[in-house]
Amino acid sequence: MSNITRRNFFKILTTSVGATLLSNANEGDGSHLKAQKSQLLPKNSKQQRVVVVGGGIGGLTVAENIKLHDPDNKIEVILLERNTQYFACPMSNTLFGEIKEVEDANISFHFDYSKAEKNHNIDVIITEVIDADVNKKILTTTLGTIDYDYVVVAPGIDYNYKKLFPTWSDEKIRRATKETPAAMFSDSGKEKQNLLNQLQEWKKSGGEGYFVIVPPKGGKVRCKPASYERACMVSEFIKKYKLSGKVHLLDNSPKPQAKGPQFIEVFIKSHKETIIFNGMSGEEMESRIKKAGFTLDNFMKKENFSKVEDSFATCDIQDVDFDKKEIIFNYADNFDDEGKVSKLSYAIANIIPYHRGNRTAELFDVKRDKWGGIICSPNKTYSVSNAAVYVAGDIMGYHKFDPSAQASASVGMLTGESIAKRILTNKDEIDLTKAGITCYSMISNKPLKAIEISKGIMVTHDGIAKASSSKLDFRDGMGLIGWYQAMIETPFKY
Fold it and tell me: Distance from CA of residue 285 to its chain's centroid?
C-alpha cells in the first residue's frame, strides 16, 4: 500500500470506525466492544513497525528521527494521538504579555499533523490508547487494535490535585480545572485559552484586584520557570493597559523554584509596581536585600543569596473557596514561626497543582516510579522491564531530565536514531551525553529580555543521564523566538 493510499485509508478509517463505534454504543448490545477489538491495519511483513503513543514534542521528534535514519523505508512509523490539534506550551506565556515581536514573527501555537505526516513519511491516527499488551505487542485503541514490533510511550504529564488537596471531591477538582486552570499542558490549548479569556474579561471589567498565580509546591514538574515567566507576562499586560490590578505569586518556596535570584532581580527592576511575591512588593524585596547586607549588584551570588532568602516569606496554599473567590494559605515570614493562616481574594487565579506521569503509562505492564514515569534501563531510553517499550518526553523515569520541551526534543532525536539503527543494523546504541538542554523565560517587553539556562549532560556509572553543568544569563528575548521556531515549529511544519 503506498503512503498516500495508506494515509487516506487512515483518515477514512478514523471517520467510519468512529461513527460505527458511536452507533453500536447507542444500541447498547455490547457490539461496540467487538468493534474496538477489530484490527486497524494488518502489519506489512516487509517492514518493522514502530507505534508512537503521544504526538507531543517527544513523541513526534522520535517518530521523525526514526524515518530520518531509514532511507530505504524499511520501518513503518505510526503515531497515535487523541487530540486533532497540538497546542505548543513553550513560549505560550508570551500570549499573556501580547509581545509585539512574537506577533510580528507570525508565531503559531496551534498545529495539526498534516505537514508532519507528509514531510516525514509517518502516519498519524487520531485515537486514544485504552489498553496495552506488551507480551503480545498489541495496543487497543478507541478505533481498534494495532500490533507493533516496538512501541514508544510519550503521553506527557497529568495533574495531581489529590496530592495538593487530599480532601477535595472530584467535583471540586473539576471546578478548579475550569475556574482556576493550571494551563500547563497541551489539551489543544483549551486551558490556556480559558485563562487568556479570563484576562481579557478582567481588563474589560476594569482590571482591579489580583491575578494570583500558585506555582506547584515542588517535585518533578514540567517547566519549573513557567509560573514566574507567566507572572512577568501578565505584569506586562497590566502595564500596557494601565490597569490597577497586580500579579500576586503565592509560593511555598522563599524564592522562585527555578532561576530564583534572576527572577527576584527581574521582579524588582522590571515589575516593582505590578508583581508581589509572597506578600512582598519589589520595593519590599529590595529593602530586605539591603537589610541582609547586600545590594542589587551582589545579592545574586550563591553565597549571598542563601542569606537573602532566609529573610523572605513563604505562602503554603491550603484550600480555595470558589464561591468567595478566596485562597487560604499558611503565611510564614522570615521563618521565625510556624506561620499563620491567611486569605487572599482573587480576580483571576491560576492554581498549578503537583504534576505526575500521564496515566496512559499505567496501561503498559512495565516498572514505573512513584511519580508515574516509566523506569528506563541504565544508559538506555527503553523500559528496564521490556526492551521493546521505549519512553520519550516527560514520562521518562530513571534518568534525571527535568520535564521540558528541550529535553523531550533533544533526547527524542537520539532515541529515534537509536531505534532506527537497532532495527536496521541490530546495534543497540545511544549516547545520552549528546543531549543538551536549553530553556528560555521571557521576562520583559521593553526591552525584550529573557533568562536563558543551558545544561550539558553526563551519564553516571549507574547509567543515569543528568545535568553535568549549567550556564545561566540574561539574553535578548529574540533568542527565545528563534529557539521556539527551531524547536517547536520545525517538527510540525518542515
Answer: 30
CA dihedral 381, 84, 124, 113 (to 10 degrees): -90
Report the candidate in 449, 446, 443 with the shortest Cα–Cα distance to residue 479. 449
Pairing label, strands 138-141, 129-133: antiparallel
Sign of the alpha-carbon dihedral angle for 298, 301, 303, 307: positive
User: 313-321 and 275-277 as β-strands: parallel, antiparallel, unpaired?
Assistant: unpaired
Q: Are 99 and 448 in contact (CB under 8 A)?
A: yes
Taking a C-beta distance cutoff of 8 angstroms, is the pair 292, 264 a contact?
Answer: no
Q: Which residue has the cell 513560549?
A: 91
pTM of the model as a whole = 0.91
User: What amino acid is encoded at 148 in this protein?
Assistant: Y
Q: In the structure grid, which three cell numbers stand for residue 208, read together?
A: 482591579
**How far apart are the two ends of the chain, measured CA to CA in Å?**
25
Burial class (CB in 10 A: 0-12, 13-18, 19+), 285: buried
Which tens digits make up the pLDDT trace of 195-248?
Answer: 999 999 999 999 999 999 999 998 899 999 999 999 999 999 999 999 999 999
Q: Where are the beta strands (DSSP E) in 144-245?
A: 144-147, 150-153, 157-160, 210-214
Q: Are 94 and 233 in contact (CB under 8 A)?
A: yes
Query: Can you tell me the distance from the alpha carbon of 376 to that of 299, in angstroms, rounded to the nearest whole number?
Result: 40
**How large is the average pLDDT for residues 21-40?**
44
Strands 396-397 and 449-459: unpaired
Q: 228, 215 in Cβ contact below 8 A?
A: yes
> How many residues would you count in the chain?
494
Contacts of 429 (CB under 8 A, 6+ apart): 418, 421, 422
Residue 369 and residue 352 in contact, taking contact as beta carbons nearer than 8 Å: no
Q: 470 pairs with which residues across the strands? A: 455
Type of residue numbered 329: F
